[in-house]
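Schema walk-through. Below, the input block comes first and the output block second. Nothing else is stored per chain. Lengths vary across the set, and this one has 412 residues.
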Amino acid sequence: MTVRTTPQRTNQTGLFGLLFVANTAMFAVYFGVGGPLVQSAVALADPVDKVANAGMVAGVSAIFATVFNPIGGALSDRTRSRFGRRNPWLLGGALAAFAALWLLGTASTVTLILISWSIAQAMMNLFQAALTAIVPDRVPRERRGIASAVAGVATSVAAVVGTQVAARYAGSLAGFLLLGGGVVASAVLLVLFSRDPRPGEYEIVVKERRSPLAVLADFLSALGHRDFMWVFLGRALMILSYFMVLMFQLFILQDHIRMPSGLTPVEGVAALTLINVIASVVATLIGGPLADKLQRYRLFVFVSSAISGLALLIPLVSPTWTGMAIFSAVSGVGFGTYMAVDTALATLVLPNPENAARDLGVLNIANAGPQMIAPFVAATIIELSGYPALFATAIVVAVAGALTVLRVKAVR
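--- output ---
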């Protein structure tokens, strides 16, 4: 079954503002709670095995997030409520996530942290699925690029907001409540000040039933296209390398880096995130248009992904606060340029433009999958060989990702 909605053309500016607020609130939870706050809670609950436990919590909760996102999308698609299709899941998901975050803020054992953060991730993804669906529901095609840019800027702002809140309230319930309360407030604003289509205002198209295997085969068919497959593999390797280090920044600063006097590790994570975001945004604004002008997407992806990986040589050779700050800036330049240009490259190697949304959905697996396994891989490496081995492994993975783009033939 497919639901088609004619996007409403009124008050688009107001809707974009609401989408910005909601995306900022949502990603602030992911960056602030999923990073410093959860890791601080794990470290307090079990200081000896904090790395292994933090990896387990991050990995298992990511599975819940991945599973509940499509479930939330399917549920909201099928909702026939006089309050709209998306509104019940926006508000319900936000309130349930807030309750789970409240529980997480009081958790004192690794088991309870794991359970409460997994529930929070699941509920946040019910909210996220409904929020994401607002764009095709209510934004005309010719303005969806603006909607995408709004979400991108919100993600960068959220990284700073989330880590700053975490730095200010690490070890207390307040941080969890503030970040969770932001999501609830954004849901209330969306429900009150934007109009969700009601039954009768959208068209329901019933399609022929097909077996799950046939649907899956169709969904993954783009991977049979050689150039698309290499772009997919390169993205997966780059995301894996990036998140292997990003997810353990707090413990890197706690256990491996000598911090400046007066600066706590959690505050350090917030400072490094700010440096990384600024560098990434600047690089994105320059790299994307420059790649368009020169029409050399493959070259830009290769160079930027190599920079992102080789930046890890800095903390490997110089495990100091200054080294970490320089690494954050260089990594931000490399990764920001990579994400801006690699997405453009992916659109240029799509097997069939008529299936663009489906095939870009396949590419999203290369974003989500590595984020699920990165905590397990990184925690294992740290436990066995320490943080220098983590940096070295991430370098190898990133360079391998850079080399894959050289196999792409259809684009320069």
